Amino acid sequence: MKQVWVFAEHQAGQWTSVTGELLVAARNIADQLNGELNVIVCGDQVEELAATLKQWKVDRVYLSQHPELNFYHPLVYTETIVDLVSEYGCPEMILFGATYLGRDLAPAIAARLGTGCAADCCDLKLDENGNLLQIVPGLGGTIFATIVTPFHRPQVATVKPGMLETLGSSENEDKAKALKPVEVVKVEPRFPQNTAAIQLHSVKQKPAKESGLQAAKRIVAGGAGISGPEGWSLLEELADVLGAAVGATRPAVDEGWASHDLMIGQSGKTVRPELYLGIGISGDMMHTIGIKGKGTLIAINQDPKAAIFKQVDYGIVADYRSILPVLIEEVKRREG
């Protein structure tokens, strides 16, 4: 029977958002192949968490537990997963989230198994032959390219968080009550001789300002048209009065007005806000591909031909410096 594998990431006792997205997509792909959905879980004392995977109709969990796996170790994780393939058979595909961990682990696994790895996919489909169609933006964001791995298995891909649909937690919980417990196969981790070559020295929590962007219901984002740090301060003031998170395009990050963790798009975060306000943003696909959902999109740009106006619900053709101060005062007046 054909197998679809997902590497399931978890943080602070919870599955990451991209894990939920991958499990929904992988279950659908496995059903199309008349196959199984199997999940790899590595960590320390995560057996109870692994049991919750039944809500995604997982067939089997390969569970590797050890105190040394509490945090990601590239050598140990790589060897353990390669051993899994050797012992339990080569799956059709192994899917990872395009997180810092997944972007490091997936290509290492692919290299060890002699196969390809498609990075930062925005969608996954199957062709008529059962090959995985790995869809990624290409040529600077001007096209979508489809990558196929027809001759080697497993097919390995990383998927950007926020790109795929997921199930609501209440929907999952209701369905899980009627499902049988997931089969758990306990796997001993493998520690290669050079494990000590990489050591963890410290762990730092991301500031809430940065880590909350993907969950934000309101976002005020700025691009190259902001033209300087003074304008960026004005944007941050608007975000503050709106109770919104701040987002950025790559030019704004390159100029140093915003940190990389605030970047939205192909090289940054994927967001699903109820309200998005883009200021001084041209609207190329490398940014807009990171804006999902059915929220209200608004743009302010003084170029009437800016591509962003084709992507939003409301557009204002004006210099943002004449709009934002008035908007800030109006919001303050209504709230005060």
Description:
The protein is α/β, with parallel strands linked by helices and 336 residues long. It has 2 domains: 3-197, HUPs (Rossmann fold); 208-335, TPP-binding domain (Rossmann fold). The chain has helices spanning 17-32, 47-51, 74-88, 100-113, 169-176, 208-211, 229-242, 250-254, 285-288, 320-335, and strands at residues 3-7, 10-11, 14-15, 36-43, 60-65, 93-97, 117-121, 123-126, 132-138, 143-147, 155-159, 183-186, 218-222, 245-248, 275-279, 296-301, 314-317. Strands 7-11-6-1-4-5-12 form a 7-stranded parallel beta sheet. Strands 14-13-15-16-17 form a 5-stranded parallel beta sheet. The protein has a 3-stranded antiparallel beta sheet with strand order 8-9-10. β8 (123-126) and β9 (132-138) form a beta hairpin. α3 crosses α4 and α7 runs parallel beside α10 (320-335). The protein is elongated, with a radius of gyration of 22 Å. 40% of the residues are buried.
Topology:
Layout: E1 3-7, E2 10-11, E3 14-15, H1 17-32, E4 36-43, H2 47-51, E5 60-65, H3 74-88, E6 93-97, H4 100-113, E7 117-121, E8 123-126, E9 132-138, E10 143-147, E11 155-159, H5 169-176, E12 183-186, H6 208-211, E13 218-222, H7 229-242, E14 245-248, H8 250-254, E15 275-279, H9 285-288, E16 296-301, E17 314-317, H10 320-335
Parallel strand pairs: 1-4, 1-6, 4-5, 5-12, 6-11, 7-11, 13-14, 13-15, 15-16, 16-17
Antiparallel strand pairs: 2-3, 8-9, 9-10
